[in-house]
Amino acid sequence: MTQPSLRQMFSGVSSALAADALDHLDLRNQCLDPDVMPLAPSHTLLGPAFCLRAEPARDTRPAMPYQGLLRAMEHVRADEIVVFATGRSDAAGVWGELITAACQARRVAGALTDGLIRDAAQLARGPFPIFSRGTVPYDSKGRLDVVAHGDPVTLGNVTIRPGDVLIGDLDGVTVVPAEVAGRVAELVASKRAAEDAFRAAAAESGSLTDAFQRYGVL
After folding, report:
1. Minimal CA–CA distance to 9: which of 128, 183, 174?
2. Would you say 94 and 86 are in contact if contact means Cβ atoms under 8 Å apart?
3. Which of 62, 64, 185, 203 is 20 to 30 A off residue 19, Cα-Cα?
């Protein structure tokens, strides 16, 4: 799937609509933990996943820090979303202002982590979308090392594979497996049409029950 077609297919699609479509396909465990949230209300995610994984550092004073991260970030492509799996670590901020600047230059579409970030004040004012569990001042050097990239990762109970479509907003993040992305887009379009009809019916009659019975959405 090319990036222009992906963005066209999912333009304006919310995480909730994507989750509803996945429910219809009996994929009912595709939303990340509710504490993974956007740094700023305007930050939204849409794009394929680029996965990397970090583990507790073995050396607290490395002579050559950040080597795994540097290697991984050489492979991320424009329009991808960096998925930084940490095992929900609170040890350090794994994302900050400088890595964001580099990613913006490469037209990366955003960043997502089940860990923490730092430089939050600067990043919240910028357009680059970042989702995380929170913030901490600690640097990752000597605390967390990137040990793998390009492989599937697990955030909470959700497995994310390279190329899976991420849709994030203030409700949270929904992970659409790449192989069902086309079908999910079709289901979303159908539900959008039903929801528009529901709104019109509810506005006309004022009856939630009547609108639900007619269009089957709520």
Report:
1. 183
2. yes
3. 203
Residues paired with residue 159 on neighbouring β-strands, in sequence order:
154
β-bridge partners, 165: 48, 176
pLDDT at 97: 97
Which whole-number Å values give the CA distances from 118 to 111, 122, 152, 169, 185, in the listed order? 13, 9, 25, 20, 34
179's CB contacts (< 8 A; 6+ apart) are none
Calculate mean pLDDT across residues 184-192: 88
Residues 131/173, Cβ–Cβ less than 8 Å: yes
pTM: 0.90
- Angle among Cα 97, 164, 1 to the nearest 5 degrees reads 105
Q: What is the CA radius of gyration of the chain?
A: 19
> Could you report the per-residue pLDDT of 49-105, keeping only the tens digit for each?
999 999 999 999 999 999 999 999 999 999 999 999 999 999 999 999 999 999 999
Torsion-angle region of 184 (φ positive above 0: left; ψ -120 to 50: alpha; else: beta): alpha
Q: Please list the residues that pair with 52 across neighbouring strands.
A: 84, 149
Tokens 């940490």, residue located = 86
